[in-house]
Amino acid sequence: MGLYHTRPTVSDIRAIKARGQKISMLYVTTLDEAAAANAAGIDMLSIEGRFFSPEMREAAGNCFVQVGLPFGPFGKLATAEDYLREAFRFMAIGADCVYCAASLDIQKALCDNAVPVIAHVGLIPSQATWTGGFKAVGKTAESARAVWDHVKRLEAIGCFGAELEVVPDRVGEVISKSTPLIMLGMGAGAGADAQYLFAEDVLGHTTGHKPRHAKTYRNFAAEYARLQQERVAAFKEFISDVETGAYPAPQHAVPITDAEFERFAASIKA
């Protein structure tokens, strides 16, 4: 789907799934990352609410943008009204859909108001304590069935899609093929509708844990380290120039004619 001439709609994304075409998706945090994703032709972006702004929407160009509504303990949203107000605010800026990992009744309230909702199944980071922490979900028949049932509940309330995180590839494929929801796979195998990675993993400057499903395409960590060394070196050279008088040089100063300077000097002696 990459390099759309106009921004795709929910209907367009559903049509892509129907065609069996794979979707590329990145989590980004900066204007540069969003602009690069747009220039490259990435289909979908995931952007947390704290990073989303009119400037970020402009940088994202024709990418279909999912904006994250921070779940209760990780933000200030609690009631359905809270979530609705925030969703409407982000959609006014240009969000194409919202991510919501809150309760089914809150998700349904959003859906009932025609907000395209991306939910979360499998390993849900904000609720990981219920599934044993940050590890794969769906490795037993019972656990896999629980993920399936969760997806079916999301279908019933009208969700647009769901992040499908760290489940066995065969489970991910069966679920993705058996639901109209757009399944955004993160560590869920090739059968998911979208393949979703963090830009920091793709670019090789992950600061925390790097998950097994992450793939690195560039080594920005080394480049950032080199740039930091260059910053320090440049600042040291500046200090030296200040101390020796090499800076500022004549070209860095504002000139004044001799006549005007003499008039100024005479005025302060008067």
Give a structural overview.
An 8-stranded parallel beta barrel has the order 1-2-3-4-5-6-7-8, surrounded by 5 helices. β5 (117-122), α6 and β6 form a beta-alpha-beta unit. The protein is built from 10 helices and 8 strands. It has helices at residues 10-19, 31-40, 54-60, 80-93, 104-112, 141-157, 169-177, 199-202, 220-244, 258-269, and strands spanning 23-27, 44-48, 64-68, 97-99, 117-122, 161-165, 182-186, 194-198. It is α/β, with parallel strands linked by helices and 270 residues long.
Low-confidence stretches: none
Percentage of helical residues? 40-55%
Radius of gyration: 26 Å
Q: Summarize the main sheet.
A: 8 strands, parallel, barrel
Instruction: Briefly note the structural class of the backbone.
Output: alpha/beta
Count, helices: 10
What value does the average pLDDT take? 93
Protein name: 3-methyl-2-oxobutanoate hydroxymethyltransferase
Family: Belongs to the PanB family.
InterPro entries: Pantoate_hydroxy_MeTrfase (IPR003700), Pyrv/PenolPyrv_kinase-like_dom (IPR015813), Pyrv_kinase-like_dom_sf (IPR040442)
GO molecular function, one term: 3-methyl-2-oxobutanoate hydroxymethyltransferase activity
